[in-house]
Amino acid sequence: MSAGWDERAAGVLRLPSGRLVRGRGLRRELDPRSLPPTYGVYLLGKEPPEVPWESRWLRWPDFRLPRDRAEARKVLTQTWERAADPAERVEIACGGGRGRTGTALACLAVLDGVPPEEAVRFVRRDYDRHAVETPWQRTYVRRFGG
Length: 146
What we know:
Blueprint: E1 12-14, E2 20-25, E3 39-44, E4 54-59, H1 69-82, E5 90-94, H2 99-111, H3 116-126, H4 135-144
Parallel strand pairs: 2-5, 3-4, 3-5
Antiparallel strand pairs: 1-2
Helix pairs in contact: 1-2, 2-3, 2-4, 3-4
């Protein structure tokens, strides 16, 4: 049985339900001392490099929104469900780890019961104060709840 994320580790966000999800910027090397994810969702405009764990790619250009919003909702919902298993190490990542990653984490917070109008504030407080970078990303999170 594998161990889940250490809540104190960099980028790990605890959702109100207790689910732990790590956000990360792919431009920074993965710390070789840290546990790798068991599942990753990569939010990039082009296909990400292969990783040795199970992963999904959502086509999501920098500073923008997902190309296929229905697919994004499906993948984020599956990711949230998967994070319920305490043995899973679920990771959400984009290039810098703030805009797209923060937006996706805020959507997971909405799925977890955080009101859509508070989800960006929640992620900025508990993950990265610069998360969710653009006005349209903030609007996307508010509409994700509806």
